[in-house]
Design brief:
The protein is built from three helices and ten strands. By secondary structure, the chain is an alpha+beta fold. The protein has a single domain, classed as Immunoglobulins (Immunoglobulin-like, Sandwich). It is elongated and about 100 Å long. The termini are far apart. InterPro entries: FixH.
Length: 169
């Protein structure tokens, strides 16, 4: 009687070894990629997670007092989500609708111009209050999509967070 050798057990074993190697390579590559935290709330993820309900309550209180809208003739509104601008020096105007006639000069304003995928080119912006608008002057050095993050503090119970997407032409 002849012994017939089959190679399919070796094929299964080789497949399992290749899958394990692929998993190890995937974990290695993923561990080398940088992690960028979303800084929409100008705070760490842990603090936002812990105080999320309080943040939303403060946002609601702010929304009862103010409404912000981006308004500038040099922007082309695209689907009301992304605003198109030229690279280089720009000025951005955000209209503030003041429902209860609060003094806008008393607002504490933080603004950050950032890229969605990296924190390397972040620019902290200073806001000027002109009439009933916030005006930001900034310089965009690279083409692509940018985010303008704005945090406006009226008082301890009223804080607003806003995000505007900007894209260079």
């Amino acid at each position: 009687m002849e012994n017939k050798k089959t190679f399919w057990p070796y094929g299964i074993l080789i497949s399992i070894v290749l899958i394990v190697i692929a998993c190890i390579v995937t974990i290695y590559i993923a561990s080398k990629a940088p992690v960028y935290n979303d800084n929409f709330y100008f705070d760490t993820y842990a603090n936002v997670d812990k105080n999320y309900n309080e943040i939303q309550k403060r946002q609601k209180q702010f929304d009862e007092n103010f409404k912000l809208s981006l308004d500038n003739e040099s922007f082309e509104d695209q689907n009301k989500i992304i605003y198109l601008i030229n690279d280089g020096k720009n000025s951005l105007k955000i209209n503030v609708e003041n429902f209860k006639n609060y003094d806008l000069n008393q607002l504490q304003i933080q603004a950050l111009l950032t890229r969605p995928h990296t924190n390397e080119m972040d620019q902290k912006l200073k806001a000027m209050i002109v009439d009933s608008s916030l005006v930001f002057d900034f310089n965009i050095s690279e083409k692509g999509v940018w985010k303008l993050l704005v945090k406006i503090t009226q008082n301890e119970e009223s804080v607003g967070f806003f995000e505007f997407f900007i894209k260079t032409k």
